[in-house]
Amino acid sequence: MVKTDRKPDGTAQRRATTGRPLGGPASSIGPPTSTVPTTGFDALDRQLVHALQLDGRAPFSRIAAVLGVSDQTVARRYTRHRTTGGLKVLGLADARTLGEIEWMVRVQCTPDAAVSVAEALARRSDTSWVSLMSGGTEIAAVCRAASSDHSDALLLQKLPRTPSVVGVTAHCLLHEFFGGPQGLITKSGALTDTQIAELSPPPPDPPAAPVTLTDADRRLFDALAQDGRTPLGELAAVTGWSPTTVRRRLAELRADGVLYYDVDYDLRQFGHGVMVALWLSVAPAELAATGEALAVHPEVAFACATTGPNNLFASVLCRDVGALYTYLTTRVAALPGVRAMESAPRIRHIKGAGPLVPLSPAASGRRR
Fold first, then answer.
1. 357: exposed, middle or buried (C-beta count within 10 Å: 0-12, 13-18, 19+)?
2. Which of 259, 358, 356, 354 is nearest to 6 (CA)?
3. Which of 66, 180, 352, 357 could disulfide-pair with 364, CB 3.0 to 4.6 Å?
């Protein structure tokens, strides 16, 4: 697999929902169509992205007070970037609190069929972070199953079955070291510790048993996956609830850790030009320590432990191939217990964490 998010190739995007990465949070097939300038976000833009990563529905007045600017300035910045595709807030459902199983899938195809197979995967509601990797003959994706009982049907029956698919491997995501509500922007230093504390909501308290969503909850999540800042009135219309009930349910889902917010943003604005999926084979006794050490690297947008011979995965973002080489030969090489390494660059991003939307210009700033 490979989510901030959630990337770095700067191509135009297509998308869909969740909150983890495999090619890195969303992009379109074909030439770039983004109107977003590539000169980079300024300091205030970066602070705004970081603030929204912490609380995607925080009132602009609250963000403005913490950043020391006017409400109008924050609203104007957000509206401009949201309109041009520079950033977008996504409201996503956490798989583990719902008792769902996530699989990191690698599909090997003949070169002529890779794009069509990737697009078919991206159109499914149970996939996210769909990307073309390496020479364009491998597809990486994250697939979600309602439970382990449903995984066989997903992996053996529902994945594209065509002579053009020459191989499929799937490894279960066991533990997430970095990802979900933690975006790459949280490592940027855009906000001070004091500002982070002022903007951060209380930490969630996940329930002991998996949460079961109602049909209205699912409609709520469908709307939030399109726009995490959808007004209460619109959410009330799609759920059939009153605005007061919507507000209360949002708070409940957030407190339980079911709902979290991610920010999809144009990675070019942060100077990221290369995204690589990194698979490491780590000695079992060192897996936890190595995963935790990897998770704090500023280049790592997503990191998790998986089943399989390569039991540690990371989505890595660097400025260019030279910076990637330096990172792999220094910081990765120094990690404890690493016995083997495999890396694959992402050459095209098809779908990110949210629902698939044709020709969306931003390139997600989150994981995989």
1. middle
2. 354
3. 352
Nearest Cα to 140, choosing from 166, 170, 112? Answer: 170
Assess whether pLDDT exceeds 80 at residue 34.
no
Neighbours of 330 (CB within 10 A): 9
Bridge-based pairing of strands 165-178 and 300-306 is antiparallel
Q: What is the pLDDT of residues 173-205, one digit of tens each?
A: 999 999 989 989 999 899 999 999 999 999 999
Q: What are the E-state strand segments in the chain?
A: 87-93, 101-109, 127-133, 138-145, 165-178, 259-265, 274-282, 300-306, 312-318, 338-351
For the full predicted model, state whether its pTM sits above 0.90: no
Task: Report the chain's mean pLDDT, rounded to a whole number.
Answer: 84
Location of structure tokens 């432990």: 305
Quote the crossing angle between the two packed helices 43-54 and 71-84, to the nearest 10°.
90
Q: For residue range 271-318, list pLDDT tens digits in order.
A: 888 999 999 999 999 999 999 999 999 999 999 999 999 999 999 999
C-alpha to C-alpha distance for 304 and 312, rounded to whole angstroms: 6
Residue 143 clears pLDDT 70, i.e. is over it: yes
Contacts 24+ apart (CB under 8 A), 61-66: 62/199, 63/199, 66/195, 66/198, 66/199
Residue 156, pLDDT score: 59
C-beta of residue 11 within 8 angstroms of C-beta of residue 361: no
Helix axes 215-226, 232-239, angle to 10 degrees: 140
Compute the Cα dihedral for 323, 53, 5, 336 and give only its sign: positive
Residue 82, Cβ density class (10 Å: 0-12 exposed, 13-18 middle, ≥19 buried): middle
